Amino acid sequence: MKPPTFFVSARNKRGVLIFIFISLMILFVPRIILFFSPKEIITIEASKIQLLTKNHYKKKFFYKKNRYSKKNKFYLPPQKFDPNSYKEKDWLKLGLSKKQVAVILKFIKRGIYSNDQLQKIVVIPSELFNLIKDSTFYPEKNTKQIQTVERKLETEKKHLLFINTATQEELEILPGIGTFFAKNILKYRDKIGGFYKKTQLLEVWKFDLEKYNAIEGLIFITLQDIRKIDINSALAADFKAHPYFNWNQANALVKMRNQKGGAFRSIEEIKECVLIDEELFDKLKPYLSL
Question: What CATH number has the domain spanning 143-225?
């Protein structure tokens, strides 16, 4: 049996050739025209380049400025003021939130008489305090007032809870504390060596500002209950055991002590260590001894 044969007419052949020819024309003609066309050179003056670059950085700066402009912005008071007489609207004008102002008004209700007392209000950011500290004035306290306040404080101390010696049961009585936070406070107190200021409670795990404000007026701190680290005999592991030290800082102090002949002459000498800045030193100082 013969295989089937295919017959292509001359007309069909011409049609295929024409189709191929047209396809090649469509594909190559634009490229040929583009190749022989005169090249157009685009030039930009240097001044325009500088202008474009300047506008680019302006937009970039504007974007960054707007991006971070939502951060707190604080303002100078229009004139010198007594913080005791400032109302909510006055504090708000300085750039504080309503929650921060509520805490401040509660704190100064009993009266404050120095910038030191003002700085102890934890909700006042350091940026704002540095901005307003030279614009404050306070009423003078006469001797009778001072004696009255001191007697009042001594009376209050008898009813306050000494946070550095309190038991779990005593802590649980405080408002909003309970078993969970009482255990966390004791655990952190033991680890840190005692509290030297009340605001350190905010370093306790899950302990927030709301709980702090609820008990701040009910607790008292005594510095003699703080456990000290002897910087002339402590090992690197002893330093590292304290939450304020990391391993690099602890190891660096031991090496520095050895370089000084095995002993520091003063606690301030540890500031010579590049890993310990002024802020960290202030936090560590109450826990260090010679």
Answer: 1.10.150
Residue 123: burial class (beta carbons within 10 Å; 0-12, 13-18, 19+): middle
pLDDT band at 113 (very low <50, low <70, confident <90, very high): confident
Distances (CA, A) of 259 to 56, 78, 234, 256: 53, 54, 15, 5
What is each CA distance from 225 to 113, 163, 164, 180, in whole angstroms? 28, 10, 6, 23
Q: What is the CATH number of domain 229-289?
A: 1.10.150
Cα(152)–Cα(155) distance, integer angstroms: 5
Q: Report residue 58 CA to chain centroid gap.
A: 28
41-45, 110-114, 253-257 — which is least confidently predicted?
41-45
Residue extents of the structural domains in the chain: 83-135, 143-225, 229-289
pLDDT tens string 125-173: 988 999 999 999 988 765 555 555 555 545 444 457 899 999 999 999 8
Question: What span, in angstroms and rounded, lies between the C-alpha atoms of 50 and 242?
Answer: 56
